[in-house]
């Protein structure tokens, strides 16, 4: 009888040990992800473009965005959208690894080329720093 009790206690101890390790791992990894997200710089760029030059602006924007994503590891995400009722009102969601990455980004040749190309196309620009509350997407997207 004592042997059965001992085996049951030993199994309970092993299970408690495994659960404790899993608990620590889950919360440790969660803290790492949260810390990385807190370092990220997230910004909305609200742009009003001269409607006559919208096609040329979009071409320049696409070139800049694709180049930045391809060659700058810290440029994480760009989403550019146009207002359906007024397509010359564009909003861009930009996510950078951190502020230093953003500062380096605006000094790159491709970003300076973009700014020079669009300087007479952009009627107004408003930059809004935001906090990413949450994100969800399907795997592989």
From TrEMBL:
Superkingdom as given in the UniProt entry: Bacteria
Family annotation (Pfam families): ABM (PF03992)
Keywords of this entry: Monooxygenase, Oxidoreductase
SUPFAM superfamilies assigned: Dimeric alpha+beta barrel
One Gene Ontology molecular-function label: monooxygenase activity
The enzyme's E.C. designation: 1.-.-.-
Every ABM domain range: 41-132
Gene3D superfamilies assigned: 3.30.70.100
UniProt protein name: Quinol monooxygenase
């Amino acid at each position: 009888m004592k042997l059965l009790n001992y085996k049951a206690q030993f199994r309970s101890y092993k299970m408690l040990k495994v659960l404790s390790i899993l608990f620590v791992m889950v919360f440790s990894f969660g803290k790492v992800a949260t810390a990385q997200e807190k370092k990220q710089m997230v910004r909305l760029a609200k742009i009003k473009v001269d409607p006559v030059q919208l096609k040329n602006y979009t071409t320049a924007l696409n070139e800049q965005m694709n180049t930045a994503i391809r060659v700058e590891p810290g440029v994480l995400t760009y989403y550019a959208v146009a207002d359906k009722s007024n397509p010359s009102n564009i909003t861009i969601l930009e996510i950078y690894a951190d502020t230093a990455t953003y500062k380096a980004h605006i000094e790159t040749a491709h970003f300076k080329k973009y700014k020079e190309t669009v300087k007479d196309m952009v009627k107004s620009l408003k930059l809004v720093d935001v906090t990413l509350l949450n994100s969800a997407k399907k795997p592989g997207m």
